[in-house]
């Protein structure tokens, strides 16, 4: 029995996305601020631990110095997720 010819299917072309936002590079200040926040947080926590009686960097807040240092480091780390 003879075989019939198959039909040619048109090639698939994906739909165009007209309003697709293009990702812009970060401003020049972004990377230095990111690194500075992480280093500043590290120095804050290290200063707190090195001072034996925990009187530095801010004696009035006591153990919250650790929270302040880790908050600075976390802010720098969160900036790394948006870095392009």
Written description of the protein model:
With 84 residues, the protein is an all-alpha fold. It has a domain at 30-80. The protein contains two helices and no strands. It has helices spanning 30-50, 64-80. Helix 1 runs antiparallel to helix 2 (64-80). The protein starts with 29 loop residues before the first helix and ends with a helix. The mean pLDDT is 87. It is found in: Cell membrane. It comes from Phycicoccus elongatus Lp2. InterPro entries: CrgA (IPR009619).
Layout of helices and strands:
Blueprint: H1 30-50, H2 64-80
In summary, what is this structure?
The protein is mainly alpha-helical and 84 residues long. The chain has a domain at 30-80. The protein has helices at 30-50, 64-80.
Keywords, separated by commas or semicolons:
single chain; 84 residues; mainly alpha; membrane; transmembrane; Cell division protein CrgA
**What share of the residues does DSSP label as strand, in percent?**
under 5%
Distance between the termini: 62 Å
Q: What structural class is derived from the secondary structure elements? A: mainly alpha
Strand count, sense and closure of the main sheet? none
* Secondary-structure element string: HH
Bin the helical content: 40-55%
Distinct helical segment count: 2
Count of distinct strands? 0
Overall body shape:
rod-shaped
Estimate the mean pLDDT confidence: 87
Low-confidence stretches: none
As a whole number of angstroms, the C-alpha radius of gyration is 28 Å
């Amino acid at each position: 029995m003879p075989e019939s010819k198959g039909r040619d299917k048109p090639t698939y072309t994906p739909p165009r996305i007209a309003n697709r936002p293009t990702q812009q590079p970060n401003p020049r200040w972004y990377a230095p601020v990111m690194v500075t926040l992480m280093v500043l947080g590290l120095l804050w926590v290290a200063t707190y631990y090195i001072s034996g009686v925990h009187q530095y960097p801010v004696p009035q807040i006591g153990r919250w110095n650790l929270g302040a240092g880790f908050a600075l480091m976390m802010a720098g780390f969160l900036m790394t997720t948006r870095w392009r």
